[in-house]
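Re: Re: ligand-bound prediction request (bumping)

Still looking for help on this. To restate: I need the protein modeled with NAP bound, output as structure tokens. Inputs repeated here so nobody has to scroll up.
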Amino acid sequence: MSKTILITGASRGIGRAAAVLAGRRGWSVGVNYANNRAAAEEVVGLVAEAGGRAVAIQGDVAIEADVISAFDQTERTFGPLDGVVANAGIVGEKQLLAEMSAERMRRMFEVNVLGAYLCAREAARRLPTSLGGRGGSIVLVSSVAARLGSPFEYIDYAGSKAAVDTLALGLSKELGAEGVRVNAVRPGVTETDIHASGGQPDRAQRVGTMTPFGRAGRPEEVAEAIVWLLSDASSYVSGALLDVSGGR
Ligand code: NAP
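Reply:
Sorry for the wait, this slipped through. Here it is.
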């Protein structure tokens, strides 16, 4: 069945791979991005090439009006939503907690926690069957950092992802009778730009060699789990925290 979905942070990395995979299923995709319009437009083209439809939507997930607007634009373009992927996220530079500024921690929690909660809230206002929605699936992109704690690197990031896990646990119960499933995918170290943005461009390769598989994951491997959770194939799965971490 064709679906309409919104993916935040879909211009690069894991979100981009999920958008392209959704395109292969013929789905319609709202491709949210923060700054990189050219990358988002490229993803729109790739989704179309794959057999789906897409629209690029600028917006900062930490800003409530931007989140609402991203939902509105997706629904105006493609019709009612069936799924939402709260994927946009940031890391910070490698620091001890003792070194972190309040400003850094505030931005971390604004994007990773408030952003995910606003997206989930907006989905919870639109997808439930009792509110006239079609039911559907909410996928939150967390991280194995939520259970590892990321000591000596970014404890703030790890804590932000623990809040995302808890969102999946609670909201899945609130929406269970509404035809809406809520799950979190927890990637391990994955080959994307996020590591360079935190000042460690070699991190995926370095940490990857220390995992049971001896390598980092690819964004496409995480996308498979996201799209499965969006699809009807996972119809009895809700409240799950699915690690895609090569056994780490
Ligand atoms: P990435 O390659 O750095 O891409 C980040 C994406 O998020 C980009 O599309 C970016 O848009 C967008 N974005 C950043 N801040 C945003 C904001 N405030 N509002 C809207 N969009 C925003 O990241 P990634 O590695 O694919 O990470 C995706 C998710 O997976 C994140 O939640 C991350 O924490 C999680 N994760 C990643 C790894 C990993 O090793 N890569 C591991 C565990 C979990 P622009 O292109 O416009 O900047």
